[in-house]
Structure formats: structure tokens, C-alpha cells
Amino acid sequence: MAPATGPTGTPTRLDEGAGTRAGVGDSPLRPDGTLKVTGDFAYSSDMWHEDMLWGCTLRSPHAHAEIRSIDTGEALRQPGVHAVLTFDDLPAATTHYGLEIQDTPVLAHGRVRHHGEPVALVAADHPETARRAAAKIKVEYEELPVVHDEASALGEGAPLLHPDRDDLPQGPPASSGPGGTPSAPHVPHPNIVHRQPIVRGDAEAAAGRADVIVTGEYEVGMQDQAFLGPESGLAVPAEDGGVDLYIATQWLHSDLRQIAPVLGLPEEKVRMTLSGVGGAFGGREDLSMQIHACLLALRTGKPVKIVYNRFESFFGHVHRHPATLWYEHGATRDGKLTHMRCRIVLDGGAYASASPAVVGNASSHAAGPYVVDDVDIEALALYTNNPPCGAMRGFGAVQACFAYEAQMDKLAAELDMDPVDFRQRNAMSRGSLMPTGQPVDAPAPVAELLRRVKARPLPMEAQWESVGGETDVRALPGGLSNTTHGEGVVRGVGYAVGIKNVCYSEGFDDYSTARVRLEVVGGEPVALVHTAMAEVGQGGITVHTQIARTELGVTQVTLHPADTRVGSAGSTSASRQTYMTGGAVKHVCELVREKVLRRGRELFGTHHPAWATAELLLEGGKVVTDGGEVLASLVDVLGEEAVEAEDEWRHRATAPFDLETGQGFGHVQYSFAAHRAVVEVDTELGLVKVVELACAQDVGKAMNPQAVVGQIHGGTTQGLGLAVMEEIVVDPAAKVRNPSFTDYLIPTIADTPTIPVDVLELADEHAPYGLRGAGEAPTLSSTPAVMAAIRAATGRALPRVPVRPEHIVEV
Amino acid sequence: MRVTFTVNGRRHEADDVWEGESLLYVLRERMGLPGSKNACEQGECGSCTVRLDGEPVCACLVAAGQAEGREVVTVEGLAAYAKEREGSARTGDLAPVQQAFLDAGAVQCGFCTPGLLVAADELIERNPQPSDADIREALSGNLCRCTGYEKIMDAVRLAAARTDDGAPEVV
């Protein structure tokens, strides 16, 4: 059964460190950097096996339809085709999967619920053969009416997406919902995935104290993660009836937990190894082709590779939830917030994915980084026939930030106050309470971040005018389209600030695992670090080498490939990996250090009294006292022995939000960033040029200054994309209209401005090294800052992102 | 069909190539050169950028048969290509753009990197002292989703400065 030779492109150990002592706070080169610039770094799509087959997925052309019949006969008869699978071929009783709610069929069963849903699989000896065979599968559909927004999802007689949903709590329902289905406070209707109200104080009474009240309805379009490395992987059947899967993912163990039951295999027979990951941004939290490749490999007895192209990738992963947000804020004449009320409706699409957690995040961050004691918040996610939505960088907090920051500008204008000054008057600080009642018990430099971006000098005016008086159209809105030489171009400046939680929340048992081994290799002490952390580009592996050097006093660090032979690292999401797997590596290095020192005391304790009395450290390959006296070299202490430790490490516990009031210690840590955007708008054509997008962010501790600034640049640019260009267009029939990089635009280098970054390091004493998760916060405030600048340039309300030329010129 | 062309100075041959296969597919799946990347296969992202008789092209949009008898340079051959261009002046195993991308922190996930390196190397070859606007224009066909391009700008400026100086500095 199993192939005789192994695959090419399997990850290898990364040896780092000869010649560098770079520890925590330094910016050493990436351990995978050389491989990445020479083309030798193997991504999941680069995996290759001598006799491998290619898998292909047949997807639904309809958003909602009953499957009457599937005829695979002709497809199976094509030369070169080895297998065609449908739902009926699934080998185990478990046929569905999901991150939180197992509502997603591996292959459609009787009904398709969204455009692009997987219906059948083909394995063939060439990708084109597989594609052509898939086109010969005859599926008879009967289209059903679609549910595509709140009105159609919750209206009288609305078709239910999951009439038999079994994720509701056991016991008597709070009331009886439509169709006799049970209903609970967090699921008032079966087409609502999850709902979270948050009520604190008395918003109604506080509204009476307001001198001004502003309201607004805002809309956020469906953004795509658009990671560049499409979904891909290689499944290799093994002698023991199991499977080896090489895959790009954000969380190996979460995949494993979902894959194994569907294959009917125990988890130990599904061995997963992380291949090179071409970006993620939330889009690899859910499974894509993992189970499909394993099913085909197990069925054919041959290695199977699946690689999505960009078109399929748009259907292969969840997107950022589109949202409609209604907000009301009040303030007194002297610029103090009195209250806020809001209602956030997120479109979760056909399957649950991460919707419940996104709802928790949207609601708990709905008030932003502001002190407001009287709040009345409701957030919910719908089931519709639109594409499934789930995790994307910023995770519910992005949508809220766009709305509350627009509200802050409206209030400032109403009060005739400077928008930054108004924000600073209401800015949260250490000790402030979240709407959930949770105190922010770490530095919260909201006012300071705003001060810093505002204090920065403004970029030069009219940069398109060169010294010789020539016009460089590349610096103008419209660029090389040569649409203006400056006429009709108006500059605008806008500000925004945001708050984002770090790590998993609401009582989730969030942990990471590390295994560290210290031994002498070639006369040098070497630390081997093994975790299951998904390196998706963020630079977590670089930080692991730095932590190992700092904690163990070595230069040489070897990184073991990430796989499921070590315990879970949790997800590379929620800005959590430096905190969590960094924290686990630190913790386990400390365990290794204790073992080394114990061994040193046994061997050499009688040689020097300091072994018993002093605080001992590992530095420069030696055991030293805190006074700097050298007691022994690590080489002598270790000898032929390897010292190894493995452990799980947890952040402090959180608690669920109360289902009715939303109160609770729900989040571990908060992260803050502020932006100032400078834009130039061609007010006649509605074209926008973002000239500069300055960011200030508190990162607690810059573990790797170069990498953390890189995160801030990247997050800022994704926020810019949401502001002015990025949207998956879904038509009223719930079909995706633009699944390509021709029609779904992400910022190019020509669209992206300079991004000056100001990094603050105010330690959070709860976190390892005082660090603060950094990846997401800059994605939040970037979008509303750009929009505030466009509003300033045009005087238009612009309540929707992405903004389009027709919104700006209102044709 | 059979295709024969030169890749990174070496003659490569592939048999039983289906006429619809792209140069990118043949490089990646038949010639064991997966360095050029497949991010869109629609000619929009630039991650498969290679030199075809010196011209930067999206390998996904070139039919493999069109490469017959021609010279292809991919990221795997970039260091040797740059070395040959610059003669013996240069030391080190990497092309100046490759070293600069590493030093500047221009690599995150790295999926766009091979295409960007080929494009940036071609820019500096053609325009040894590009302005920022020149860099942005030349690289506007190469999408990156991780870096926000700031450190890519830094890297190209650095590579140009080092190339202009005749030899890369040791950082």
C-alpha cells in the first residue's frame, strides 16, 4: 500500500546561531530566511512525490440547492482517473467538522448551502485530467430560495440553514423559537449562530444627561485574507493504515482533532507535519483540503497532492464577516461620553466556523478604547447562504473599530472639538473598565499613542511636483492612469485608535507546549527547540531562537520542524503565539536550566560554595553567579548527557461572558494602536492616494524590533485595503462575483504609502517579558484613520468600507 | 510533447508535456524547480516572475512550449546570474537583492519573495539607482500580503546602494 520512497520537500531542522548571540530584544536574521530567498524553502504546494496523484474538488455552482442525484460514472471512466468520491464514500460515522460547531459536511450531503461548497473529489495522474473528470460528474440540483441578509434570514418562513442544529445547550429551552426549534439567549432564532448582549450601567438614563447625541449606521464589506500561498498539501498513505499529511495550517492539533474522526482513524495514525505556510491571517484556521487529500490517499493507496489555484482559494476558506453596525453615542458639552448603544449584525454565511468567538469579540470591543460607563450592546452572527465567514486578523474588533471611530469624529464635530483632543478626553487608561466589567489591568496608553501620531510632522504637500516643475503622476491619485496633474486634488488628515484582545478568551483552556533539549554537539552546547507552532511568516521561530539563547546562555539553537509528535501549541492567531508559545519555550527553558543547575551541583557543588548559595544563571555557555563569577562551562556540566524537558504553559484563566449581561473577565490582555492617515483625493473622479499612514503601537516588549515593525506595517496595509479597495462582492443570489486577483484587489506597492512606526514598550507584568501580542491591533485603526482622512478631504459621510469612487463623487 | 530549454544555465528537457501546461508548471512539477511560486496562476501577483531571454515574465502565463530553446532564469539561479553579471567583484553566496531582503527584514511568509527578487534584480540591472517612485512602479506587479512593502522598499534601496558601491557590505 505505502509508497516505497518518501516525498521531497519535507521540512528539515533549522540550525541557527553560529556567530550570533542575539537574544530577546535583538533582531537576528530569520532562521528560514536564506531558504526563502534562494527558493529552497518548501511550501506545502512544493511537496512532490514520485507516484503522486492530483486531487481536485467539484464545487457547487449554486448558493442553495437540493442535490437530487450525483452520477460519477463517466468521470470514473476517464483514463488516468483513480478515484471519485462523494458523501456516500465517507468511511466513518463522523461526516462533519468545525472549529466550534461541527456543522460543516466534508462533502455536501443532499443539500448545498453556499456557492463553492465541495460536492465531490477526484484523484488523477495529472491536475488537468482531474479537473476535466470533475467536470464530467453529473450533479442534478434543484435550487432553493436563498437567505442572504438579516431580513431574509430572520423573516417569517425563512428557510433554516441548519434545521437540525444540535449545538444548543441541553435542558429546557428558554423559549420556543420559530419552527418549534429550541431557543436560548445566545440563539434567539435558529438562523442566528450566536448572540452576545453586553449591558452595563443604564444607557437609557445616561442618554438623558447627554448634550449631544450622534447616531450612525455603518457597513463593512467582506474582506479576504488573500494570503499568497494557496491552500495545498500532500497526503501520503502509510503502512499502518494511517496517513502522513504535510500541510499549511495555523494550528496542527486543531486540524488533527477534526480530521481523524472523519477518516475513522485514531489521532496517532494521522501524523501531521507543518510545511511551508504562505501567509494565513485567519484564513487557515478552518480546514480546507486536509480531509479531502487524506480521503483520496487512503482510497487510492497513493500519495495525493491538492493545490488550489487563486479562483478556488476564494472558495476554499472563510472570509472576514461583513457587518452592519448601528451606533448611538452621547456626550456632554465638555466632551465626556455619557453612553453608547449599538447593534452589530455579522453575516456568518452558511457554516459556523469561528462566528461565536467573533461575536464575543465584536461585542466586548464594541465601545473601543474609551471610558463609557453606561452601555447597551448587542452583537450577533447570522447563518445565511453567503460564503462562510470566520477568522481574519482583527476578528470582530475590526468592524466595531470602523464604526466607533466614525462616531468619535461625528461627536467631535458636533461639539466643535479637535477629534484627537476629544478622543484623549475619553481615552481608557490602566484600571478603566471594559463594557464587560473587566478592568484593564495593564498599561493602556491610548492618549499617548494618539499624541505621538499627531505630533509627527505632516508629509510634504504636492509631492507630485518635482524640482524641475515636472509632474510625477505616480504620486497622484490615479497614478500612471494619468487622470490628474493636481487639479481637483484635496488633502485630508484623519486619526483613529483601537483596542484588540490578545490570546483566546471566554474561559477557553488556552495553552502551548514546548520541548527543549540541551546537549553538547561538536564541542558546543546546542539547544533543540520543538513546538507545534505554525510559523506562517510572523517570525515566531526567530523569537524562539532568541528566547532559548537568552534563557540558556547558548548561541547555537536548532529548531525542530513543527508536527504533531509534540503537544499542541494552539493557534497562530489572536496575536497569541509570541505570548503563548514564546511563553512555553521560556518556561521549558527554565525547567531545563533548573535540571542543568541540579546536575552542576551534583558534579561540582563541592568545588565552590556559590553552587549552594548564589543565584545562578546560564550565560555565554557557562554557569555563572549573579555576580558574574564563572562556576563551570555548560560543556563540562552536560558532558555526554542531554537535558530535556517538555511542558504545557498557560496564560491566566479567563471566564465566559454572561449570556444575558455580557459581564465577565473574558480576555487575557489588550493591545492598542493608533494611526494618522494623510490622503489626497481626486474629488472629481473619487480616486484616493494614501500619502502616509503613521502608526504608534504599544507592544509591551519588542522581542524582535525588526519583526514587530514588520507586523505593524503588514497589519496597517491590510487595514488600508479594507478602507479603499478590498471586497468580495456577493450578489443577491449569494454568488461570489470576483474570485480572482483581477477583480478582488489588494494593495500593491504603488497603492501603499510610507508607514512610519513608533513602538512603545510599556510592560504588561502578566505576560512573558512584559510583551503584548502585536499582530492584529494595527489592522483595526488603519481603516477608520484612512476613512476619516477621506471624509476630511471630501466632507462626505462615507459610512461604508471599502469606499468606492462613486461614493466619493456621488454620481 | 517534449520541451527543451535552458534554466539557470543548464539544459532541461521534459517529456509527455501536455500542451496546456505553463512554464511555471513544468519548472515546478517536471524539472524539480519549485522556487517560482504559484500564488494566483492568473498573471496578477508576480510570484512566478522569471527571466525569459532576459525579460521578466509571469511564468504562469507562458505556455511551456513557448520556452522551447530559450533561456530561463529562476530564483534558484539568481545568485549565479548576478555573479556572472557582476564578474569577480562580488563575494558571497547570495545575489545582492537576496542578501538585502534578508538584512532588511523584507521576508515574512516569503511566498512573494522569489518573484520579487527576480523583478527587483532586473530593476537594479536596468536602473542601478532607482528612485522610490521607480521602485514602486517596477514592483507594482508583485503582490505581497505580509510586509506592507516598507521593508521591501528598504531592501531594494539597500541592494541598489550595495551594487552601486561595487560590492556588498558585510552587515
From TrEMBL, chain A:
Entry coiled-coil feature ranges: none
The Aldehyde oxidase/xanthine dehydrogenase a/b hammerhead domain, residue ranges: 38-145
GO-annotated molecular function: iron ion binding; oxidoreductase activity
Region annotated Disordered, chain positions: 1-31, 156-191
Pfam families for this protein: Ald_Xan_dh_C, MoCoBD_1, MoCoBD_2
Top-rank taxon: Bacteria
Compositional bias per record (Low complexity), positions renumbered to this chain: 1-12, 173-184
Alphabetical list of PANTHER family matching this protein: XANTHINE DEHYDROGENASE, XANTHINE DEHYDROGENASE SUBUNIT D-RELATED
Name of this chain's protein: Xanthine dehydrogenase subunit D
Organism this protein belongs to: Streptomyces diacarni
Automatic annotation (TrEMBL), chain B:
A GO term, aspect molecular function: oxidoreductase activity
SUPFAM superfamilies: 2Fe-2S ferredoxin-like, CO dehydrogenase ISP C-domain like
Keyword tags: 2Fe-2S, Iron, Iron-sulfur, Metal-binding, Oxidoreductase
Source superkingdom: Bacteria
Domain called 2Fe-2S ferredoxin-type: residue spans: 1-78
Cited InterPro entries: 2Fe-2S-bd, 2Fe-2S-bd_dom_sf, 2Fe-2S_ferredoxin-like_sf, 2Fe-2S_ferredoxin-type, 2Fe2S_fd_BS, Beta-grasp_dom_sf, Diverse_Oxidoreductases
Classification via CDD domains: fer2
Name of this chain's protein: (2Fe-2S)-binding protein
Taxonomic lineage from the root: Bacteria, Bacillati, Actinomycetota, Actinomycetes, Kitasatosporales
